[in-house]
Amino acid sequence: MLSGFKRFFRSLGFFGAAGSLEDNSGLQNSAPAVSQIPGAKYASAEGALQISAVYACIALIADTIGTLEVNIFDRKKGKDAVAYDSPLYMVLHDQPNAAMTSFDFMRTMTMHYVMRGNAYAKIVRNSLGHLVSLEVMNPDQMEVLYEAKKGYLYKYYKDSTYRFYTAKDILHFKGLGNGIIGLSRLDFMRASITEMTNAQASATAMYSNGNRPAGLVTVDGRVTVQQKKEIKEYFSNDTLKDGSKLYVVPSNLKYQQLSLTPADVQLLESRKFGIDEIGRWYGVPSALINAGNGVGGGAIDRVNKHFYRTTIKPICKIFEKSIKQRVFTIQERSLYDIKFAIDDLLQSEPESRVSVYSTMVNNGMMTRNEVRRREGLSPVDGGDDLTIQTNLQSLKRAKNGEQNGNQNNGNS
């Protein structure tokens, strides 16, 4: 148990940062305190992105979320009423800052979140307290200090100086962690990245112009150095085009091409396994990053839906909750709501949607205009009434007709 003296200094950043899953005051740590696997190297963002599987996973998640509409709804007018005139809508949906479109902003924030487990943006407001812009901050330049009674203190290093911010100034997307800060995925997956880096380096060396022979040429009897040189030049110039070395040994003149050794085959298999391993870290099925699993047709559609539900949707929910907590004022929380258009991704094929819509409309569970809005179509007159199968009349008319019928029966 820490003494009061040591606890005080640790809160200022001395004696090391708090463990990544510990409940301690002071500087928070998003990396593992101890490496479980010896030899696992530190993975910088730039270095990790040079691994094709890492880049593909991050780009897929970031681009997918970047394409989603971020809508602000007026709660008093109904859950589907978009608050076009709200400063929140103008910033979050249209343009978060002068340098970025909404796509650029959300893609960058998602990239930071997926790689480092934390994404930050400075919240800029005008004199009236209205949201003006959101400016992306690099998580590698941020330090987070937390104390239960005082809350968050963000320490950001930029242009050779530190600036301090409180929670009301920073939009913070937090990944899996201790609830105060997210775990840095790149730091926790060091062993996997190291393994992929070593495998890629070995594969590059295997296919480079190293000492690997492409084949053997045997000749009958002894050969002089000059004869060996001539044979080698003949085969190198006329037969071998990859620049690999050619070995000449005494025997009958014959060329024998060499195949991959078992170790080489195992290396290639290891690289394929590495792609699956990286995909597991990011929640991305191998089939979606061109891993050559041969998934196609209806199966790929199911893979996509699984990816959207288990990876994309949770991230969107985290972003929604964080924006509402930090960006919305107390008053705005009661007036507005935020939602990523994840339903656009979860839509089924047109034939399936038509069948579902038909059932919903014919049984009074959706209106025709609700269906049209989901399909991006303009509303039609009379399309807000719930209908049932009997002549597709409205529930109100059907109820009135039943009442009139009962009255007429009573009068007869």
Q: How does this model look, in words?
A:
- This protein has helices at residues 4-11, 45-48, 52-66, 87-94, 102-116, 185-188, 190-207, 225-238, 262-282, 298-326, 330-335, 343-346, 350-362, 368-374, 395-411, and strands spanning 26-27, 70-74, 118-125, 131-137, 142-147, 151-158, 161-166, 170-174, 213-219, 245-250, 254-257, 336-340, 363-367, 386-388.
- The chain has 412 residues and is an alpha+beta fold.
- A 4-stranded antiparallel beta sheet has the order 1-5-6-7. A 3-stranded antiparallel beta sheet has the order 4-3-8. Strands 10-9-11 form a 3-stranded mixed beta sheet, covered by helices on one side.
- Strand 6 and strand 7 (161-166) form a beta hairpin.
- Helix 3 (52-66) packs parallel to helix 9 and helix 7 packs antiparallel against helix 9.
- The radius of gyration is 31 Å and the shape is flat.
- The model is unreliable at 1-16 (pLDDT under 50).
List keywords for this structure.
412 residues; three-stranded antiparallel β-sheet; 15 helices
Give the SSE layout:
Elements: H1 4-11, E1 26-27, H2 45-48, H3 52-66, E2 70-74, H4 87-94, H5 102-116, E3 118-125, E4 131-137, E5 142-147, E6 151-158, E7 161-166, E8 170-174, H6 185-188, H7 190-207, E9 213-219, H8 225-238, E10 245-250, E11 254-257, H9 262-282, H10 298-326, H11 330-335, E12 336-340, H12 343-346, H13 350-362, E13 363-367, H14 368-374, E14 386-388, H15 395-411
Parallel strand pairs: 9-10
Antiparallel strand pairs: 1-5, 2-12, 3-4, 3-8, 5-6, 6-7, 9-11, 13-14
Helix pairs in contact: 3-5, 3-9, 7-9
